[in-house]
Amino acid sequence: MLKPLGNRVLLEVQKVEETTASGLVLPDSAKEKPQTAKVIAVGEGRVLDNGQRAAVDVSVGDEVVFEKYAGSEVKYDGTEYLVVKDTDIIAIVE
Amino acid sequence: MLKPLGNRVLLEVQKVEETTASGLVLPDSAKEKPQTAKVIAVGEGRVLDNGQRAAVDVSVGDEVVFEKYAGSEVKYDGTEYLVVKDTDIIAIVE
Amino acid sequence: MLKPLGNRVLLEVQKVEETTASGLVLPDSAKEKPQTAKVIAVGEGRVLDNGQRAAVDVSVGDEVVFEKYAGSEVKYDGTEYLVVKDTDIIAIVE
Amino acid sequence: MLKPLGNRVLLEVQKVEETTASGLVLPDSAKEKPQTAKVIAVGEGRVLDNGQRAAVDVSVGDEVVFEKYAGSEVKYDGTEYLVVKDTDIIAIVE
Amino acid sequence: MLKPLGNRVLLEVQKVEETTASGLVLPDSAKEKPQTAKVIAVGEGRVLDNGQRAAVDVSVGDEVVFEKYAGSEVKYDGTEYLVVKDTDIIAIVE
Amino acid sequence: MLKPLGNRVLLEVQKVEETTASGLVLPDSAKEKPQTAKVIAVGEGRVLDNGQRAAVDVSVGDEVVFEKYAGSEVKYDGTEYLVVKDTDIIAIVE
Amino acid sequence: MLKPLGNRVLLEVQKVEETTASGLVLPDSAKEKPQTAKVIAVGEGRVLDNGQRAAVDVSVGDEVVFEKYAGSEVKYDGTEYLVVKDTDIIAIVE
């Protein structure tokens, strides 16, 4: 599995419908980019100037909303993941 | 519900009239962007370099004025919210 | 009333003559932007990295000179205010 | 009088000859901008991250050399002043 | 051997196929840039403002995913290496 | 004399030949800008975030090499000086 | 000799062949810029915010790899040197 470093969080973005109600297959750019994802793994947090770590505020299994266009897409074992920094996570869906 | 992270604040922006006095429906760009909103949820505050958190200066229920164009729009359960950083909140309306 | 946050200061900018000596009404861009204002309300100050607050150096009632073009204009209860950061205030008129 | 805030310094810039030796009146852009000024008032210094203030290194009455184009021009009681940050003062003339 | 400095990490990037299934030799720009690499050597970490070092979160032998286009390519003893900062390493493949 | 402030250093730049070996007078842009200078005066150093001063690493009389184009030219008492920040001084010539 | 200041390091860059195997003299831009150099002198390190110095991680005599285009070229006593900051040194060749 992938273990994110520092204040990074590994997300599995929720699938987006690739076919419209009328059955039309949408090209990539026509799909609205999803903004919610499930947290798969969490880094240990960034190192503060006093040497301590600032724990990341989300936990594995959380559903989160994140800033559009944030992070790096990573493919692992056939699944597409998104790795974002914790500062790019806007809110937890409770 | 949405729980904002760090120094983020979840706002419900006040509705803007979509119809002028004369009954004319306004297109999106013709409406003046509202600047006041109600605080729905508040993050725990950003982590300082000494490891402490700086509490956010607004509370749930406050009516606030915020910087135009700040924040990210998030739709949840049919309602549009705005998530801004506490530094983008200018003042509390008392 | 409006309560400014952090190191923000609420200012009431002094009226500028909208008519020249000869009685000519000036369009907006021809008026010299005023630089002095009266302090209406003061935030509690920004949070330092050690968790303390740095108090704002001006008090309610002070007449101040501020950097041109600084701050956000806010309309409240029919009055136009300007909210600036304390670092945008140049001097107090004593 | 004007009391500068933080690490700001109020300067009275020395008059520049507006007439050349031959009696020609110079337009504004032809005059060489003066770089020396007399210190009229001094702020209390900027607040450091430990909450202390870093005192400003110049005193009232000092003649100083400052960075060209630094600061804000402020007119007060018929006199033109320049308010610069202490970091824009290059040297004291002793 | 090369000993990376500070928070730098020496990586050996995994070979990319230069021939397609049909035997076609690919020009350089047509190959998808690999994102995984093996850690060959690790620096001692960057110096924090309190004088301590923040240890690098990866170890020799780790397989890592790194930000595309990060780092400097270095040729040593006939082998091409990539030297990246630890902040450019996204995750460890476990 | 001029007393530089903070981490500034007052330099007297060494004269550059204005005539080539063949006696040709060089126009200003054709002369190679000198990079070495003599230290005339030294500021007390910049104030650190803990309130202490970081002493400047050069002394009066040192011959130094400095970054091209750094600093401000100041004319005083008929002599042209250059005031640079200590971070723009590359090395001392010993 | 030259004594570099702060976190600067004085390097002697290794000579690059100016003639190809076929004897062709190469113009300057056709030569591949060397990336390895020998450390000639080392500064005392930059001053941290707590007033201490962070020692430079290389020693006189080390062979180092450095970021392309980093540093300032300095000619001294007929020899061309390069002065780089320690953060521009990628690795030591051991």
UniProtKB/TrEMBL annotation, chains A, B, C, D, E, F, G:
Its main location: cytoplasm. Signal peptide: none annotated. HAMAP family: CH10. Keywords: Chaperone, Cytoplasm. This is Co-chaperonin GroES. NCBIfam families: PRK00364.2-2 (NF001531), PRK00364.2-4 (NF001533), PRK00364.2-5 (NF001534). Heptamer of 7 subunits arranged in a ring. Interacts with the chaperonin GroEL. Gene3D superfamilies: GroES chaperonin (2.30.33.40). The keyword Chaperone applies. It comes from Alkalibacterium iburiense. Together with the chaperonin GroEL, plays an essential role in assisting protein folding. The GroEL-GroES system forms a nano-cage that allows encapsulation of the non-native substrate proteins and provides a physical environment optimized to promote and accelerate protein folding. GroES binds to the apical surface of the GroEL ring, thereby capping the opening of the GroEL channel. It holds the Pfam family Cpn10. Belongs to the GroES chaperonin family. It is found in: Cytoplasm.
